[in-house]
Amino acid sequence: MKEKILITRKVFPSIVGRLQEHFDVESNDADYIYAPDELRTRLQGKVGALVSATEIINAPLVQACPSLRAVANIAVGYNNLDLAALSAAGVVATNTPDVLTETTADFGWALLMATARRTGEAERWLRLGLWDKWALDMFLGVDIHGASLGILGMGRIGRAVAQRAHGFGMTVRYHDRAPVALADEKGAQFCSKEALLSLSDHLVITMPYDPASHHTIGRRELALMKQTATLINISRGGLVDEDALADALADNRLAGAGLDVFEREPFVCPRLLANARVVATPHIASASLKTRLAMADLAADNLIAALGYGACAGQPPSPLNPAVLRT
Ligand code: 8YV
């Protein structure tokens, strides 16, 4: 008899097929988000789970699911997983790095350009039939070429965002816990968070979220930014204090914000939604077909291997708590 696993959200049929070769699979074709009680109930008797960022795998849940041996996240960010609790229970946790880096960086630029040049606002206005004549001062934005780009969090995605800036002749600065070794991102300079905030014309947030990085961008930080700057967030909503951001935008202390992520998704702060200078998208930075397929495939590879099946049995490609594999 095959061991049982749970797929918590709808995934591509090819992924279900791959998992069915090894496991008795329970899937969620209706694709609703399980409430915590239902998730706990459905995980009973399951040895593995393929989850998304919409599932919170916390200590009480892990303790209530003693059969669980592996949790594979279809995301590179893993703030939805309590790694300490999973490790303590001997459950392997995995994520999906690398496969989404370039696609996510592309989208950071899509948001940056839309925000700086006000394309969403202009298109909404045009579609409303309000364009009766051209004018010299229509939808004046801020330039991207030659401007100063700030990157908060110089990991894989931050570097990919930086690389793309050279075509625009930008000055690139970044802040991270410490300077990082940069092989081919010519000239990205490390600086303090304060310097980054005050010098950047466009600031892109690409750092991971955890309780310690909650509201990394709050009132104090926004006050340091240029009035003509844009703020772009493609990481996690909790990194930005949305009330403080809504205030800064309402007071014209910032040129615009491009947000793919929000503090309480899918809820979006109404004051941000109402502000025309906000470009808002529903957490789709990694959403190209090729990349979402690659993410789901990598998560399936991880789950199969972590549970001891397939050619890489016992060696999942991207474990988050590799020490568990050695015990
Ligand atoms: C995911 C993301 O699509 O990988 C991440 O961390 O934020 C996105 O690429 C999203 O989290 C859904 O799981």
From TrEMBL:
Keyword Ribosomal protein among UniProt keywords: no
GO CC, alphabetical: cytosol
Keyword field contains Oxidoreductase: yes
Gene Ontology molecular function: glyoxylate reductase (NADPH) activity; hydroxypyruvate reductase [NAD(P)H] activity; NAD binding
Listed SUPFAM superfamilies: Formate/glycerate dehydrogenase catalytic domain-like, NAD(P)-binding Rossmann-fold domains
Similarity annotation: Belongs to the D-isomer specific 2-hydroxyacid dehydrogenase family.
PANTHER family in UniProt: 2-HYDROXYACID DEHYDROGENASE-RELATED (PTHR10996), GLYOXYLATE_HYDROXYPYRUVATE REDUCTASE B (PTHR10996:SF283)
The protein, known as: D-glycerate dehydrogenase
Native organism: Paraburkholderia polaris
